[in-house]
C-alpha cells in the first residue's frame, strides 16, 4: 500500500505531469500573447500525456518496449494509428449519422476492428508474433489513434469555446483514454498474439473472438455512458467500465515480465542454485555444471 501511495515517484507519473504541464503552459502563453502557431503542440502534449504515461508504466512492469524494434513501434504509432483513424472515422460517419442516438453503441464494433487492421497486416507477415510484441504493437497503434482523436475533439472545442476549454477537454481525455482505447486493444492483442505464437501463424479461435467481443462491448458501453442522455446514477458507471477494462488488460498481461540481462541471470543462478549445481567459472550464463 505504501508503494501505491507513492505513485508520484514513478516514471509514468512524472511523464504525465511534465506533458500536462507543458500543454497547459503552451495554452496559457497562447491566450496571453495571441500566438496561435503553438496550438498543435499544445494539443499534442495534452492529448499524449495520459497514453504515454500508461506506455511507460506498462513497459516498466513488463519490458515490452524491447520486444519490437523501435522504428517498428514508431511506424505503428504514426501510420497504424493514422490508418485506424481513417477507417474508424469513415465507418463512424457511414454507420452513425446521429452521434447522439442509440447508434453510438455501434462505435466499439467499428473502432476496435479499425485499430486491429494495421496490427493484423503486420502479424500476417509472420514477424513479431510473440505476446510481448503483440502488446507493444497494440498499445502503439491505439496510442496513435487515441492521441489524434483527442486532438480532433480539442480542435472542435476551440470553435465553440476557447483554447482553455480545449485544454480541459484534453486534460479529461488524458485521464480516460489510457483506460479505454489502449487497454481494449492491448487486451485483445495479448490474447491473440499468445495464440498466434503457439500456432506459429495467424488463426481465428473462440478465445480471440471472445476477447474482441468483450473489448468492443466495453468500448460501446463507455461511449454510450458519455453521449447518451442517461440518469446521473447510470453515468457514474463510467469509472466502473474503465476499472474493469484495465483489470482485464492487467490480467491478460500479468505473465509478461522484463527481460533479465545475461549477467543478472547468471548471478541469480549462482546465488539460488545448490553448491553442486552452480556453473563453473567461464561456463555459459544460466547453464549448471
TrEMBL record:
Pfam family, one: PrsW-protease
Transmembrane spans: 12-30, 42-58, 70-91, 178-196, 203-221, 233-249
InterPro entries from the UniProt entry: PrsW (IPR026898)
Keywords: Membrane, Transmembrane, Transmembrane helix
Protein's name according to its UniProt entry: PrsW family intramembrane metalloprotease
Originating organism: Streptosporangium pseudovulgare
